[in-house]
C-alpha cells in the first residue's frame, strides 16, 4: 500500500512514516519545512519527500493520505485530497488500525514529562529483553530511532492531548486504547484548542474510560487536577506515586535515590539526570513496567544506564569553562523544574537562562502572570520576544526578582549573552523550537573569544 503523509517532518508523523515503512508500505510525504535531522532520517529509510503542499506531489496517486494536525482547510494539498475524494485519515487513527489494536499499549500522558517518561519506559522494557515497539516525540538516546514496530506485544507511546486532525478535534490519545496508562500531571495548556482546564480534563477522562478493568492507571497522589479526572469516572485499578510508589534517600540533585513500593525498597537508581521532576518520571516508568511484568529491581538497573532524551538538559558545548545546555521547556512549570534541577547540580554557579516563549499558549499570553516567577532560581534571564505575540512582555521585567532583559533582535541577544558570560557559568537555553540556531551561534562566538584569549 502507498501512504502519502502530509506534515511528515513532525516527530509524531515522522514516527508514523518510519513504522509504516517497517510494515512494508511504500511511503512518501511532504512538509512546509523539509530539513534535517528528520528529513535525513526519513530519506535514509527510502522515503521520498516533497517540499511544500502543491498538487504535483500527487502525480503517483496514493492509496491513502495521512493528514497531520498542522494542516487545515485551505491548504492546497488538503483541498486536492477532498476534491478528488482520495481516502484519508489522521495519524492517530492510522496507528490504531494498523499497529495498536492488537498490542499491549503503555501510554504516557500529561502536561509535562511525556517524552522523558516514555523514553525511560521503552528503555526499561528493552533492557528487560522485551523488545517493545514505541513512538516517542523526541530522540531517545538509548535507541537510534524515535519510533519502531517492535517484536513483542508491548508498545510504548507518548500520548499527546493535542487534537488529531482538522476533521477530528479529539485528542490524539483517545485513539490509543491503552492497557497501562500513565498520567504524569495536568495543567492548562494548548490554549489555541482548549478553552479552559475542564476542557482538557474531559479529554483525559475520555482516555481514562478506555482503559480496561485488567489494566492499570498511574498518577501522582498530589495532583488535584488529575484527581478530578478520576472523579469523572474510572473503572480500572489505580496506583499513586507519592502513595503506593515513593522515593527515599534522594541526594540534593536527585542523581541518586531509592525506589519504594508499598513500603519495600525496590532498588537504588544512580544516573546522570537531575531534578525532582525526573525522579517523578522514573517512578512512573518503573511502575508502568512492573504492570507489564518487569521486576522493579531490573527496572532500577535499567534506569541507571538511561541516557536522557535529546533537548532535555542536553549539554551542547563546553567552551572556556562555560557550559551551554539545550532544553525543551516552554511552560512556566517546566521552566521552573528545569532551572531548579540545574541549580541543585551547580550550587552557587551562575545560571544564565535564555528563553524563547514561542508556543501558541505563550504567544496568547495565557501564562504571562506566572512566567516571571518560573525563572526565579536563575541569576540572569535573557528573553527573546517573537514578532507575533498578542501581548506585551515589558511587564515581565518589573515582575522578575532577578535581572531580566528583553530582545527582539537575535544578534543583540547573542551579543549580550556573550558579553555577560564568564568561565564557570551555565547558559541554559529553553525553547520548543530551533530558536534560530542559537546554540551553534553561541558556541561559535564563545570559541572565538577563547581563541583570541589564547
TrEMBL record:
ATP binds at residues 110-116. InterPro entries: Mpl, Mur-like_cat_sf, Mur_ligase_C, Mur_ligase_C_dom_sf, Mur_ligase_cen, Mur_ligase_N, MurCDEF_pg_biosynth. Residues 2-96 form the Mur ligase N-terminal catalytic domain. It is an enzyme of class 6 (ligase). It catalyses: UDP-N-acetyl-alpha-D-muramate + L-alanyl-gamma-D-glutamyl-meso-2,6-diaminopimelate + ATP = UDP-N-acetyl-alpha-D-muramoyl-L-alanyl-gamma-D-glutamyl-meso-2,6-diaminopimelate + ADP + phosphate + H(+). Belongs to the MurCDEF family. Mpl subfamily. This is UDP-N-acetylmuramate--L-alanyl-gamma-D-glutamyl-meso-2,6-diaminoheptandioate ligase.
Amino acid at each position: 500500500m502507498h501512504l502519502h503523509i502530509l506534515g511528515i517532518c513532525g516527530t509524531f508523523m515522522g514516527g508514523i512514516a518510519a513504522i509504516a515503512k517497517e510494515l512494508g508500505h511504500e511511503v512518501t510525504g511532504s512538509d512546509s519545512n523539509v530539513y534535517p535531522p528528520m528529513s535525513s532520517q526519513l530519506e535514509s529509510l527510502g522515503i521520498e519527500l516533497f517540499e511544500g503542499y502543491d498538487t504535483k506531489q500527487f502525480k503517483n496517486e496514493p492509496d491513502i493520505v495521512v493528514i497531520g494536525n498542522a494542516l487545515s482547510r485551505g491548504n492546497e494539498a488538503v483541498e486536492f485530497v477532498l476534491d478528488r475524494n482520495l481516502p484519508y485519515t489522521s495519524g492517530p487513527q492510522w496507528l490504531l488500525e494498523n499497529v495498536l489494536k492488537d498490542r499491549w499499549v503503555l501510554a504516557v500522558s500529561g502536561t509535562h514529562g511525556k517524552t522523558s517518561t516514555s523514553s525511560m519506559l521503552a528503555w526499561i522494557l528493552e533492557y528487560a529483553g522485551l523488545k517493545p515497539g514505541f513512538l516517542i516525540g523526541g530522540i531517545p538516546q538509548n535507541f537510534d530511532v524515535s519510533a519502531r514496530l517492535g517484536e513483542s506485544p508491548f508498545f510504548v507511546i507518548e500520548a499527546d492531548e493535542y487534537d488529531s486532525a482538522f476533521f477530528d478535534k479529539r485528542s490524539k490519545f483517545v485513539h490509543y486504547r491503552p492497557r497501562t496508562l500513565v498520567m504524569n500531571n495536568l495543567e492548562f495548556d494548548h490554549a489555541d484548542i482548549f478553552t479552559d482546564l475542564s476542557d482538557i480534563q474531559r479529554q483525559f477522562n475520555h482516555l481514562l474510560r478506555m482503559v480496561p478493568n485488567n489494566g492499570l492507571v498511574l498518577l501522582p497522589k498530589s495532583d488535584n487536577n488529575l484527581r478530578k479526572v478520576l472523579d469523572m469516572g474510572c473503572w480500572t485499578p489505580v496506583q499513586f506515586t507519592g502513595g503506593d510508589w515513593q522515593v527515599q534517600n534522594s541526594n540534593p540533585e536527585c542523581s541518586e535515590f531509592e525506589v519504594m513500593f508499598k513500603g519495600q525498597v525496590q532498588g537504588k537508581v544512580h544516573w546522570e539526570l537531575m531534578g525532582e521532576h525526573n525522579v517523578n518520571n522514573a517512578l512512573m516508568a518503573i511502575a508502568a513496567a512492573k504492570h507489564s511484568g518487569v521486576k522493579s529491581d531490573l527496572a532500577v538497573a535499567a534506569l541507571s544506564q538511561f541516557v536522557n532524551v535529546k533537548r532535555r538538559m542536553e549539554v551542547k558545548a563546553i567552551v572556556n569553562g562555560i557550559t551551554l545546555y539545550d532544553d525543551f521547556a516552554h511552560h512556566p512549570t517546566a521552566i521552573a523544574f528545569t532551572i531548579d534541577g540545574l541549580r541543585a547540580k551547580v550550587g552557587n554557579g551562575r545560571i544564565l537562562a535564555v528563553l524563547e516563549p514561542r508556543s501558541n499558549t505563550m504567544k496568547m499570553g495565557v501564562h504571562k502572570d506566572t512566567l516571571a516567577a518560573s525563572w526565579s532560581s536563575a541569576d540572569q534571564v535573557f528573553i527573546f520576544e517573537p514578532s507575533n505575540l498578542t501581548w506585551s512582555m515589558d511587564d515581565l521585567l518589573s515582575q522578575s526578582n532577578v535581572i531580566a532583559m528583553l530582545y527582539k533582535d537575535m544578534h543583540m541577544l547573542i551579543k549580550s549573552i556573550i558579553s555577560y558570560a564568564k568561565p564557570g557559568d551555565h547558559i541554559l537555553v529553553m525553547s520548543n523550537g530551533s530558536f534560530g540556531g542559537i546554540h551553534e551561534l553561541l558556541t561559535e562566538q564563545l570559541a572565538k573569544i577563547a581563541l583570541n584569549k589564547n
